[in-house]
Amino acid sequence: MPIYEYTCNKCNHVHDAVRSVDNRDNPIECPECASMDSIKNVTGAMGAVDTKLTPDKATGGQYSQLMDKMKRGTPKQYHEGLDRSSNRNGSIWGNN
After folding, report:
1. What is the pLDDT of residue 55?
2. Total-model pTM
3. Order of strands, edge to edge, in the sheet holding 38-40?
4. Cα four-point dihedral sign 6, 33, 29, 27
5. Looking at per-residue confidence, does 7 or 52 come out higher?
């Protein structure tokens, strides 16, 4: 369940609560003054993805070695798919 941040309208205390999405806008008790007059704050999460990260970069080259081992015991018809998996990166844009 997500963590939401609330501010008490009575004492201005900021507090967090783990609540279901369906329950996030329902009244919540302030842990400082016990008031039921808190509002949900607008917050956001930040994140980043290395779009140049490849399986080989992430594993120090071991991914390609593993794929080569797998190819030895796999019919040739599946080799192209194994090669494609080695060339993927963290990008969601274009063909990865």
Report:
1. 74
2. 0.46
3. 14-18, 3-8, 38-40
4. negative
5. 7
Asked if 22 and 30 touch (Cβ cutoff 8 Å), the reply is no
Look over the chain and give the mean of its residue pLDDT values, rounded to a whole number. 80
CA-to-CA distance for 11 and 33, rounded, in angstroms? Answer: 7
23 burial type by CB count under 10 A (0-12 exposed, 13-18 middle, 19+ buried): exposed
Q: Where are the beta strands (DSSP E) in 1-96?
A: 3-8, 14-18, 38-40
Does residue 67 contact residue 86 with C-beta atoms inside 8 Å?
yes
Neighbours of 19 (CB within 10 A): 17
What is the band of 32 on the pLDDT scale with cuts at 50, 70, 90?
very high
What is the Cα 27 distance to its own chain's centre?
28
